[in-house]
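Why run this: before we spend reagent on co-expression, it is cheaper to look at a predicted model of the complex and decide which construct boundaries make sense. The entries below are exactly what would go into the expression plan.
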Amino acid sequence: MAKNLELEQKQKAESNSNLKTLKRKKTIWAYIFLAPQILVFFIFSAYPIVMSYVYSFYEWTGIGPLEDFVGLGNYQQLLSSPRFWNSALISIYYILGTTVLGVGGALILAIILNDQKMNGKGFYRAIYFLPVVTTTAIVGIIMGNIFGITGFFNQFLLNFNIIDKPIPWLTDPVLALIILIVVGSWKGLGINMVYWLAGLQSIPNELYESAQLDGAGFWSTLRHITLPLLKPMAAVIILLSLVSGINAFDLVKTLTNGGPNFATETMDLFIYNYAFSSQLGGGQVRMGYASAAGVLLGLFTFVISMIFGAASFGKQIMKLKGNKKSKGGVKA
Amino acid sequence: MRKTSIFLFGLFAMILVLSACSSNDDDVDGDGGGNEGSEDEDVVTLSFWNRYPELRGGFEQLIEEFEAEHPDIKIERQETPEPETQLRTALSEGDLPDMWTNIVEMSELVEVDAVKNLDEVFTDEVKAQFQDGTWYENGTTVDGSVYGFPLASPKSKAMIMYYNKDVFDMLGLTEDDIPETWEEFKELGQQIREDSNGGVYPIVWNNPGWANEQLVSMMGTAITPEVPWQENLKEGEPQVLTEGKIESAKFLKELLDEDLMAPQSVEIGLGEAEATFSVGQSAFLWSGDWVGRQLFVETEFENWGVAPLPTKDGKPYYYRAGSEATSIRVNNDTEHWEEVKTFLEYSLENLHRIVYVNTGAGLPAKKDVGGEPPFEQYQDILELESELAIPVPKPAEFNPETVEFNKAYRNKLDVGGIGDAVVGYLTGNIDDLEAEVGEIDQAMKDAFYETLDEYPEVSQEDYMYPNWEPFEPYTVDKYDELR
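The model came back. Tokens follow.
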């Protein structure tokens, strides 16, 4: 009996050791497969981010050694620059505009396209997703042609006598920003729609069936079942939309190039203009200054994400913590 | 599992070996670094970046003829749509081409030893073959040494007025009708609008900030001649708020508001403006000397003429000659200096004729180069440019320390000029242009005086030229008078 027990223990120990070896092997392989990605991350993401912090303390044109240390000089100049604050404000308008329009519009589309009885859902989903896979720069150029003074949209309105004079969609500061927001929202509509659809399809059908049996109509089902259950998904989608709104460079560059007179210059275009501007009579190339703006943009993104994350997930985290505590209490 | 692991490991090792082999092959071809290479052992390949679209055809021809004469040297030309970005990236990676047309300020490149000293090629005898005003500090030379192979004449790039002869013929206009004053321009403009039933605009313009600043500055010299660009060279301080610039901008706005300027002007680039002019939708086009070739080649439009820009009272205007030194620069670390030198020497004899005169792309920096311009208006452009591009005092020539000073002073500015403000005014984004330009002007002055305190080796006198008379060429000996 004791011998059997010993044998059993030995077998157990052996199997444990095998399991450990297997685990170790798996871990090693995991690291081997992760290594290229980690390497790429450090070279192409971490290193440039760290270096942009370093550059931001220098007056540097991007050529030659870093010699002219200016401390916080670039930051001070940025914070006292009306052009920088203007670009920050434009970015905020753009981010909020694309989030409200893009996320809201996508939700409506997703609800329509999630209808079980609807025909040709696949076709419509593909159509709405098409802008997502179209190069943003191309979208910018085409939209520039459509909304130009002699563009298609004005011609259309003129032909139908809706207007008697072309509207300067891209050269009026307010209209240009609106067009940017509308086009930016339209461009991201498809991906937001896919996120919403994923959320909608994760809601069990039984809930809708029960609601139907209880006599609930479309609006009450939407209000009391769909929207509450989509809340966690909504937080993620809104956060993604906010963050993607910060990177509007390619669309702004090709559609308005920040004009007229910096009225649509977003923060990322501001950074580009200082980092690579070579226009005659324009500014100088100032990589250090642009890096300082980049650092501030990074901080801005971080703060937005944290605020929104705290607002959206704070309650859930607190709830989870509360659950853990109460479980701990029961055990004790 | 073990077999799979061994297989994967083997595959990984094989890929590594293969990619290493392929790198070796590349090195044989690319001669290391990717800048130069040879198709076979006897041929040396030089890389060359060009930033000027109007010189593309000319360079293609030049390189073809050069390669035919020098079969052991091949030149790989690359067009650079984002020249500044591309060159700075190449510089930071130590991957510069062997040669490139000017991108990035010369002093900046010399400071980091990125460009080759070309004194060996440009002896005094050779230098004398170029137009007056070709050799100047931070343009083609640094500390008196040559670093740039001059391409375009310093007496070029002045804005002129192109007129569409098809439109003139259609509306029964003659060259005597070409307006010289703003008033005449508006009168003729109204006539053009009426006679064409609104089908033709008098002028099509374009919206880049730099073009607007160039235009108002040039037109403005007819009113405020002591400010050719952003400095008052009599007072010795920055000045962008001038009567000339403001009135010129207001004239543009009037044209736009009175439907005498094509409405798309405020949102299109120069290319689209040229196209609009070529198809007869506008009677006039304001642009530089290079546009003649663009009209002739790109839009295949030949029936046009040139005249000076209209000014407020028909008084003459001018452009500061040699403000942009168009040149070829050579990588200081080129592994094929002998081959580059061969190309430069060949270019000395042939480039200006082939690239500039034979294509009509502009006016060459070298004198008496011969060649046959492809269109008859070339000579007219040459004459106009010679008349309009006038050398003005250059602080960098008087005191080279002003090069660094200028960088430091301009780094303090939020906005580099008034071009965007002019565009903003034209589009209705700015109501009070004077106030807006006044702010830029004040910011420039503040930054200038603040920087003067930081640079004891530079003084306000370096920007003050009492012996300069606007419209009279400022020559080298005049600097000596002030020293």
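The longest strand of chain B covers residues 44-50. Residues 16-39 of chain B have pLDDT under 50 and may be disordered. Bring this page to Monday's planning discussion.
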